[in-house]
Amino acid sequence: MTAMSSIGFIGLGAMGWPMAARLVAAGHKLIVEDASQERAQAFAADIGATAAETPTDVARGADILITMLPTSAIVAQVMGGDAGACAALRPGTIVIEMSSGIPAETQRIAEAVRQAGGSLIDAPVSGGVPRARTGELTIMAGGPLEIIDRVEPVLRCMGTSILRTGDIGSAHAMKALNNLASAAGLLATVEVLLIGKKFGLDPALMVDVLNVSTGMNNSTQKKLKQFILSRKFSSGFGLDLMVKDLTIATGLAEEMELEAPFSALCQKMWKSAAELCGPGHDHTEIARLSEKLAGLELG
Ligand code: NAD
């Protein structure tokens, strides 16, 4: 799988667009598809690729097929629906499922791909839109090592850390758990700032202190000033997508009958924030729920 591979890429959203653009910049020939045909055509015209109308058309021309879609249900539909990719997979095609998905669903989709003559690995990412643009994502990879090794040069166009997590589905489990840790950190820090503000501390100064103290986390470094205190709420990662990830993570605990009360409360609060805000909001708007509960705004 060299720079000459023909790659199908389905899902050109906030993450998919810059990730696919990295592949084009590295010299790969891309066939792209998105539910928004306008978006696929805009990518073809602006970045340089062939736009296809259906997943079947993408699969017909691809050695490698990448999916970067909102949910496992959509991936299953794109792979197996009426105009689904499985119907036209070339023998030996490797499907790289880069969305954040549900491990058990991913295993089911992998079996459908296997029956269609291909193989699937799950390779979700962390790092958000900024690191998708620079090709510095963290990529978690689950599946047979020899398949991951074969596509590693392609993954390296999009990410700098490629971490093998185990069998198919293990990377999706890891990704959901990463986001649980990240979401808990963000929510806790928003409450910390609200308590501090009511006490009389300046929230921006608090972020500076946290960033050189043990309270530092990814949110203190990259989200609180940039998107919450600034009231921009434009990180590029949707609130609904975060709730999906947290529901996957807490679902894993439930499946294994493991008590995780803090995680369950965290998921519940994020879900309430999504209900409060409605669809189409940025995940940093979680602050609005805490602000409503506290009767105080951080901005
Ligand atoms: P997004 O909503 O911005 O983009 C999703 C894209 O998929 C859209 O362009 C949409 O039109 C397309 N799409 C939806 N249904 C489709 C279908 N049936 N066929 C073809 N295209 C379809 O989402 P995103 O932020 O790019 O996230 C994609 C995945 O990556 C999600 O699973 C998300 O959880 C994960 N993720 C996102 C980020 C982030 O910072 N945004 C970071 C890491 C992982």
Structure description:
With 299 residues, the protein is α/β, with parallel strands linked by helices. The protein contains 14 helices and nine strands. The strands form two sheets. A six-stranded parallel sheet has the order 3-2-1-4-5-6, sandwiched between helices. It has a three-stranded mixed sheet with strand order 7-8-9. Helix 7 links the parallel strand 8 and strand 9. The radius of gyration is 20 Å and the shape is globular. The termini are far apart. The mean pLDDT is 97. It binds nicotinamide-adenine-dinucleotide (NAD).
- The helix tally amounts to 14
Largest sheet: 6 strands, parallel
Unreliable parts: none
Structural class: alpha/beta
Per the principal axes of the C-alpha atoms, what is the gross shape?
globular
Record field, number of beta strands: 9
Estimate the helix proportion, in percent. 40-55%
Strand order of the largest sheet: 3-2-1-4-5-6
Give the termini separation: 49 Å
